[in-house]
């Protein structure tokens, strides 16, 4: 492994913020801040079951994944027009750029919208235009990943794929999210096989609340290239060895795990152990508007709680680029930026 010049612990928070990074696990609907939810509700004449921004924020006291998903889907109900999807995308990318995210691979949940009568092209075109304009105006690179809702049927996922295929050039892959337990990867074996034939990138949420068996299923049945969350892998030594052997990235979301009670305390988070075991771990925000922070806040709170160091920060940033679906040239370009930032902070001593 590349050894990096050590950065003094006193400068670690600044380093974590300044280092260029990729974000590979975030749901764009989970970036809707309460203020934007209410602004869109007013613009579109949508009635919400909350009195206002503060009332909505008070409801963000989650006990598990499902208690979050119920509110997350309610929040997304204000999205009706292409401009709404555009505004949501631009707001996230503007915020991510402030965290020195240079590349984002963004999940979107089309079924949450098409079920309400919103057109597939409305969703994809709004988000795609946001990505393109953010690249031009802010220099941040991004790509879209269409995520199937696993609480719905495989047939529904097939219909969603069919509806999205005319816009195939506007998303790079597919994912699998929503209620995990009781909806194993095997339920989506055929639709993922079809996506594989189509040359789409494949990722899946697995081992957030669900057992290691769901991670095995995501790998062996779905051929998932990355595992979203995957923190339950630590319960299965053979699985850990498999993930190391194949260099399968885990897109871990520390504040999400804390807010959804996957861990009771950030100091107890197993990310340092997963990294130490040689897994290609990355840090991500999942649903930043709901879980108390964008990606830098995830790095800062995790490092403060666990005592991780600058060498580990380097590895996480490198992993974020290694695990991304970009060209080797693009990766090399960001690696040079990363080296320059570390050299600058190491020189401060
Ligand atoms: N898990 C599953 N589904 C989701 C999540 C998550 O963390 N966030 C948004 N949809
Ligand atoms: Zn997620």
TrEMBL record:
GO molecular function: adenine deaminase activity; zinc ion binding
Superkingdom of origin organism: Bacteria
Stated name of the protein: Adenine deaminase
InterPro entries per the UniProt record, alphabetical: A_deaminase_dom, ADE, Ado/ade_deaminase, Metal_Hydrolase
Record-listed Zn(2+) binding positions: 25, 27, 205, 286
Residue positions binding substrate: 287
Cited function: Catalyzes the hydrolytic deamination of adenine to hypoxanthine. Plays an important role in the purine salvage pathway and in nitrogen catabolism.
UniProt-annotated site: Important for catalytic activity, residues: 229
Organism this protein belongs to: Delftia acidovorans (strain DSM 14801 / SPH-1)
Domain Adenosine deaminase, chain residue ranges per copy: 20-336
Cofactor annotation: Zn(2+)
Region forming the signal peptide: none
Active site, per annotation: 208
Cellular component GO terms, alphabetical: cytosol
Family: Belongs to the metallo-dependent hydrolases superfamily. Adenosine and AMP deaminases family. Adenine deaminase type 2 subfamily.
UniProt xrefs under CDD domains: ADA (cd01320)
């Amino acid at each position: 492994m590349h050894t990096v010049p050590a950065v003094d612990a006193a400068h670690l928070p600044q380093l974590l913020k300044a280092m260029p990074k990729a974000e590979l696990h975030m749901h764009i609907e989970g970036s809707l801040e309460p203020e934007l939810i209410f602004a869109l509700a007013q613009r579109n004449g949508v009635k919400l079951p909350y009195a206002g921004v503060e009332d909505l924020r008070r409801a963000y006291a989650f006990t598990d994944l499902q208690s979050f998903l119920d509110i997350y889907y309610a929040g997304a109900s204000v999205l009706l027009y292409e401009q709404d999807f555009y505004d949501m995308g631009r707001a996230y990318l503007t915020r991510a750029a402030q965290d020195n995210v240079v590349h984002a691979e963004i999940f979107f949940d089309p079924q949450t919208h098409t079920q309400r009568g919103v057109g597939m092209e409305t969703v994809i075109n709004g988000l795609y235009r946001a990505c393109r304009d953010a690249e031009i105006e802010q220099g941040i690179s991004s790509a879209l990943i269409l995520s199937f809702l696993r609480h719905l049927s495989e047939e529904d996922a097939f219909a969603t794929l069919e509806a999205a295929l005319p816009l195939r050039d506007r998303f790079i892959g597919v994912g699998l999210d929503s209620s995990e337990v009781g909806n194993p990867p095997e339920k989506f074996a055929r639709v993922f096989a079809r996506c594989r034939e189509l040359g789409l990138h494949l990722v899946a949420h697995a081992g957030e609340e669900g057992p290691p068996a769901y991670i095995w299923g995501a790998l062996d049945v779905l051929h998932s290239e990355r595992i979203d969350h995957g923190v339950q892998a630590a319960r299965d030594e053979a699985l850990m060895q498999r993930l190391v052997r194949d260099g399968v990235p885990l897109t871990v979301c520390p504040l999400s795990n804390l807010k959804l009670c996957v861990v009771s305390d950030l100091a107890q988070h197993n990310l340092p152990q997963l990294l130490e075991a040689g897994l290609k771990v990355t840090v991500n925000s999942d649903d930043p508007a709901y879980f108390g922070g964008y990606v830098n806040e995830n790095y800062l709170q995790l490092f403060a709680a666990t005592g991780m160091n600058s060498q580990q920060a380097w590895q996480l940033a490198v992993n974020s680029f290694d695990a991304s679906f970009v060209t080797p040239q693009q990766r090399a370009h960001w690696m040079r930026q990363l080296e320059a930032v570390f050299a600058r902070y190491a020189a401060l001593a």
